[in-house]
Design goal:
By secondary structure, the protein is α+β, with helices and mostly antiparallel strands. The protein has four domains: about 5-150, 2-Layer Sandwich (Beta-Lactamase), CATH 3.30.450.20; about 165-265, PAS domain (Beta-Lactamase, 2-Layer Sandwich); about 270-350; about 360-489, Histidine kinase-like ATPase, C-terminal domain (Heat Shock Protein 90, 2-Layer Sandwich). It has 14 helices and 19 strands. The chain has helices at about 15-20, 65-70, 75-80, 90-100, 150-165, 185-190, 195-200, 215-225, 270-320, 325-350, 355, 360-375, 390-415, 450-460; strands at about 5, 10, 35, 50-55, 60-65, 110-115, 120-135, 135-145, 170-175, 180-185, 210, 225-235, 240-250, 260-265, 380-385, 415-425, 430-435, 465-470, 475-485. Strands 10-9-14-13-12-11 form a six-stranded antiparallel sheet. Strands 5-4-8-7-6 form a five-stranded antiparallel sheet, sandwiched between helices. A five-stranded mixed sheet has the order 15-16-17-19-18. A hairpin with a 5-residue loop joins strand 12 (about 225-235) and strand 13. Helix 13 runs antiparallel to helix 14. The chain is elongated. The termini are far apart. It binds adenosine-5'-triphosphate and magnesium ion. Adenosine-5'-triphosphate binds near residues 413 and 437.
Length: about 500
């Protein structure tokens, strides 16, 4: 059956459907209209899904091939369904309310609905409805248009615009010639240029790196690798410098062609500044602590140790005089000798005299010998530092790191052999301490209760150096420290 809309039994096409249907003016009675079966193919062959449904029972009275193809129900299935059956259940109350409100509306109008296909897929449909009479019954003819993709795109672009507007990082986009195509509000505040001033103009005019950076090198990397992640210093419109962490990536069209680049630039000026402050404070604390240790060690050595040593000599004299006090003096001498040992050990631990008097190589050698003597380990020390002494802070830092590393060997490693190697490379000093002990999982050691490794790393970082811990359970531990030899006091 091919439906045809007629007015007063006259065949009309869809194009004058409205006239045919409306034909009335408010107040005038709507003349009876009948949908017959021709329609010049506009119903049957319409590429948009169409159907006619009974206004009272809501049953489908007729559907076209496009509706069958799009919704997946057969004609027979459709004709046993109502228009409620092509909707998610939650949509039905809205449908019923809508029909009640519009039952007398003779004009065609369009509204948006959620429809459900036979396979369960829910789609967004824009439906134009027109009230007609079909086989003598009040009915509506509907023409539906699937707008799911459009809605999704709208939702996505809304999501993207929201993100771009609210994100606190500058998001900058450009085409393959590095002409700016995107500049979000955060880019405006970060760089001081308004989007309207920069869009369509070369990115290099507005993303200005300070002289130390090679912009062309950066661009070459981005073009070649398709991505780039750098920390750079950029210059704001007002000339102020800001430290930026930039992550850029190439944009590719569906065809696979490269269409441009987008970069997310995070202003980390404040973060870096506070890190610098913390580092400077830490440096002061470490320096002051070292100075205090040196002072106490010197006082212990010069004052307490000297006094005890003098006492020892005098006690020996009393002993030799052979008086009655000999036994008591002998006894006293043993106590004083023990106290002197203790004081000297404390003084050495606080600040080994070898470090100040003979330099790092000798101090490390003595550290190794102490470990060998007290714990029966074999310790090999190799130092190639040349004639010239290293800066005092470098010596102290490397010594303290070695001290902690060897303390760890003593406490945790169960090792038989330890090697301490220190070399002076052209620009850095490298210290490697390696043991053949039980090792540990260096990647998982992030606990905040154990501060030894953390302190070693922080000491190295304070002088612009690095510390690498290589260890796996069962295969010993290797600590490698590199510190710039120059530029430290
Ligand atoms: N040479 C080593 N051999 C085996 N395990 C080690 C070695 N060095 C470190 N570890 C492991 O790494 C952990 C962390 O070491 P770290 O020096 O940070 O802390 P700690 O020695 O336990 O405590 P402290 O804060 O007193 O130094 C140790 O508890 C130990 O399990
Ligand atoms: Mg430790």
């Amino acid at each position: 059956m091919r439906p045809v809309l007629t007015e007063h039994s006259q065949v009309v096409s869809m194009s004058n459907l409205e006239n045919a249907t409306v034909g009335s003016h408010p107040g005038k009675p709507v003349p009876p209209r009948e949908v017959l079966f021709d329609f010049e193919g506009l119903f049957e062959f319409n590429p948009q899904p169409m159907w006619i449904f009974d206004l009272e029972t809501l049953a489908f009275l007729e559907v076209n091939d496009a509706a069958i193809g799009h919704y997946g129900f057969s004609r027979d299935e459709f004709l046993h369904m109502t228009i409620k059956d092509i909707r998610p259940v939650l949509e039905v109350p809205r449908l019923l309310g809508h029909l009640e409100r519009t039952v007398d509306n003779p004009r065609p109008y369009t509204s948006c609905w959620r429809h459900q296909k036979k396979d369960g897929t829910v789609i967004d449909s824009e439906v134009t409805w027109l009230k007609v009479v079909f086989s003598g019954r009040p009915a509506k003819v509907a023409i539906a248009s699937d707008v799911t993709e459009r809605k999704r795109t709208e939702a996505q672009s809304g999501y993207h615009s929201f993100l771009l507007a609210t994100i606190t990082d500058a998001v900058v986009a450009c085409d393959v010639d590095f002409v700016l195509t995107g500049w979000n509000p955060a880019a405006e505040t970060t760089y001081g240029w308004k989007a309207a001033e920069v869009l369509g103009r070369p990115a290099a005019d507005f993303i200005v790196e300070d002289a130390a950076c090679d912009w062309n090198e950066r661009i070459r990397e981005l073009v070649e690798k398709g991505r780039m992640c750098v920390e750079a210093t950029h210059v704001r419109r007002n000339g102020a410098r800001l430290r930026v962490e930039a992550r850029a990536t190439a944009l590719t069209a569906a065809s696979g062609d490269r269409v441009g680049y987008v970069s997310v630039n995070r202003d980390i000026t404040e973060r870096r500044r506070s890190e610098d402050v913390v580092r400077a404070l830490l440096k002061q604390v470490v320096g002051a602590q070292e100075e205090e240790r040196r002072r106490v060690a010197r006082e212990l050595h010069d004052d307490a140790a000297q006094t005890l040593a003098a006492l020892l000599v005098k006690l020996r004299a009393v002993e030799e005089a052979g008086s009655v006090a000999t036994a008591a003096a002998n006894d006293l001498r043993v106590h004083v000798a023990r106290a002197l040992d203790g004081v000297q050990r404390i003084a050495k631990g606080l600040r080994p005299p070898a470090l100040d008097d003979m330099g790092l190589a000798e101090a490390l050698d003595r550290l190794g010998m102490d470990l060998a003597e007290t714990h029966g380990l074999r310790v090999d020390t190799l130092a190639q530092l040349g004639e010239q002494r290293l800066p005092a802070t470098v010596e102290t830092t490397l010594y303290r790191i070695a001290q902690e590393a060897l303390a760890n060997v003593r406490k945790h490693a169960c090792a038989k052999t330890v090697s301490i190697v220190i070399r002076r490379a052209p620009a850095r000093v490298v210290l490697i301490i390696e043991d053949d002990g039980q090792g540990f999982d260096a990647d998982r050691n992030t606990s905040t209760e154990h501060l030894g490794l953390l302190g070693m790393r922080e000491r190295a970082a304070l002088l612009g150096g690095t510390l690498l811990v290589e260890s796996t359970p069962g295969s010993g531990t290797r600590i490698r420290v590199g510190i710039p030899a120059e530029g430290n006091p």
